[in-house]
């Protein structure tokens, strides 16, 4: 049986950084003991903070997963390809003929609101033109076929026609960078002819600068996951290396695609 007890604060040791130690002295008939009791209030607060942090991290992960899930439900990826009809335009250009080319690449469609989306992708596309002229019994032709990696960013508005079928109107800018291409020269005089070919239209001795940018617009249709698109791109950058030249790209295209 305890006769009496007294609680006396102990002087904290240097290692007692997180608790206050009290000495309880108890006197009984047979024994006398001094017990050290460590109060764990601060430790409990630390555990509560850790629990809150764990719940906060879990909430962040859940929100991120929900955002990714919602985004993936609205983003459609696919492939597109088709035929180009390209040409140059400028103040001093004449006797130019369009060139037939192609384009192919990956397409993306992010539908951020009902019937409205952002359309983009990365495409390998050919552009260029062919020139023919004759003078004093001589005839000559120059054919330039630049090849670009092109990135368009278009705003699209979609009109529902029937379930699963929509008409798509889209427009926006594009940027492109030339990666390859050739220039062919040919001069004819009677039965004789001379021709030559450059290795790279963007090289040191090439005719064109590699960077291009402009605006595009088009109209297309969605038949479920199948796409059909008709559009036109007009370059706004002078791609000629000549000091007096003014050459810009333009091309019309017809595409078919499939969304995964």
Count of folded domains: 1
Order of helices and strands: EEEHEEEEEEEEEE
Report the end-to-end length measured between terminal Cα atoms.
82 Å
Strand content: over 45%
Report the structural category.
Answer: mainly beta
What percent of residues adopt helix (DSSP H or I)?
10-25%
Assign an overall shape. Answer: elongated
CATH architecture identity: Beta Barrel
Low-confidence stretches: 5-12, 14-40
Q: Could you please say which CATH topology applies here?
A: Porin
Extended strand count: 13
Mean pLDDT: 81
Give the C-alpha Rg: 37 Å
Report on this model:
This protein has a single domain, classed as Porin (Beta Barrel), CATH 2.40.160. It has one helix and 13 strands. It has one helix at residues 41-74; strands spanning 4-9, 21-27, 32-38, 75-89, 96-113, 116-126, 129-135, 138-162, 165-189, 192-198, 211-223, 226-235, 248-259. The strands form two sheets. Strands 4, 5, 6, 7, 8, 9, 10, 11, 12 and 13 form a ten-stranded antiparallel sheet that branches. A three-stranded antiparallel sheet has the order 1-2-3, with no helix packed on it.
List descriptors.
ten-stranded antiparallel sheet, 63% strand, 13 strands, 260 residues, Porin, mainly beta, three-stranded antiparallel sheet
Blueprint (SSEs and pairs):
Elements lengths: L3 E6 L11 E7 L4 E7 L2 H34 E15 L6 E18 L2 E11 L2 E7 L2 E25 L2 E25 L2 E7 L12 E13 L2 E10 L12 E12 L1
């Amino acid at each position: 049986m305890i006769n009496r007890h007294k609680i006396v604060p102990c002087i904290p040791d240097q290692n007692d950084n997180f608790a206050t130690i009290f000495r309880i002295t108890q006197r009984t008939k047979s024994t006398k003991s001094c017990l050290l009791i460590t109060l764990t209030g601060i430790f409990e607060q630390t555990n509560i903070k850790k629990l809150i942090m764990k719940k906060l991290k879990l909430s962040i992960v859940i929100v991120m997963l929900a955002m990714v899930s919602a985004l993936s439900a609205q983003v459609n990826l696919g492939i597109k390809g088709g035929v180009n009809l390209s040409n140059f335009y400028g103040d001093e250009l004449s006797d130019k003929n369009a060139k037939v080319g192609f384009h192919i690449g990956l397409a993306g469609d992010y539908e951020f609101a009902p019937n409205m989306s952002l359309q983009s992708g990365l495409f390998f596309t050919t552009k260029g033109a062919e020139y023919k002229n004759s003078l004093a019994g001589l005839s000559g032709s120059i054919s330039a076929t630049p090849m670009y990696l092109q990135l368009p960013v278009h705003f699209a508005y979609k009109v529902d026609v029937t379930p699963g079928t929509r008409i798509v109107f889209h427009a926006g800018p594009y940027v492109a960078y030339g990666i390859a291409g050739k220039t062919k020269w040919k001069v004819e005089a009677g039965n004789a002819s001379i021709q030559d070919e450059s290795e790279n239209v963007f090289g040191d001795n090439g005719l064109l600068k590699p960077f291009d940018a402009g605006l595009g617009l088009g109209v297309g249709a969605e038949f479920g996951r199948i796409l059909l698109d008709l559009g036109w791109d007009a370059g706004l950058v002078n791609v000629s290396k000549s000091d007096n030249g003014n050459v810009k790209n333009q091309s019309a295209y017809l595409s078919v695609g499939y969304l995964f």
